[in-house]
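Appendix B, record 7
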Amino acid sequence: MNFSDPHLIPLWKKVESGDRLSLADGRALFASQDLLGLGWMANHIREQRHGRQATFVFNRQINPTNICVLSCKFCDYATKEGKPNAYVLSEKDILDRLSPELREVHIVGGLYSKWSFDDYLNVLRVIRRAYPHIQLKAYTAVEIDYFSRKEKISIREVLQRLQNEGLVCLPGGGAEIFSERIRKALFPFKIGWSKWSEVHRTAHELGIRSNATMLYGHIETLEERLDHILKLRDLQDQTKGFLSFIPLAFQPGLTGIVERQTSSVDDLKTIAVSRLLLDNFDHIKSYWVTVGEETCSMALRFGADDVDGTILEERIMHAAKAETPVGMARDRLVRIIREAGCIPVERDALYNVVQIFEEKPHALIA
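Structure tokens (predicted):
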């Protein structure tokens, strides 16, 4: 690779030799204008780990309610009881959204004061009873902390009870940005790094795997992005419990926080820097819901190795006016992966391989 930015050359030498990149290295990566060189470095690491394979899961997102006790400035999804857009799903509503071919159900929603912890547990029971083979990925650290405080039980007990109902892993949501400055400005009543990390650390101690996210493209600085990423790297060094890292591009919606969504260049750069810094994370996800199909596909050459899943009905980002499809058919995800020159692999919630979509032979031209 002929780097157009000479500052990438010593960083490439560190990557090539397997040396860990530092905070200063992260600053240099974000500062570089050599997007192709940065992507090439990240893709090198990605191919070392995963070859040409890229994964997805046949899943469904269930959001039991959008009624929430919190009022976060960046959220267009949550509402208050009595508002015209408020809803609470019944057991029938939940089951009507499921089908036997699903591998994973991803469950997140609002903090509803009229529901007990047992009501939230019952969402898992209903699904598990009807479809015992579907893996359950449920409830963010924000929700788990809420259950703990509401029921006056420990986080460990909350997680153990969820585990008893079939929970196999936690989603990474609620992380936002681990910056006290931003927490106070945008979500002052929401948990920060200390409680978020406690929930995930405890889950890992119990053998529950989890994912990690970062919401970027709003009022955060690049230094705050790097601090977020390196906090996760340190925690992964200690617990080894994270499955994947998911950078989430902020959807401005009607919040007025920023005028427009961050650029595809910023999306690709953030994914590449994440891959290079998070040397102890197996998977970096390109979440098609927030970055769009084209950037999602390109990101598979910038360090990402997973595109999430079919989802079928995504409410949270689309409440913030995300312009991507509400759901994605399996064939469409396969095409997105193939367009990047990668081999599509269907997985389950824990990244076990379900099936590999081998390359189709090229037709002969007479």
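Remarks on this record: The chain has a mean pLDDT of 90. The first strand starts at residue 53 and ends at 57.
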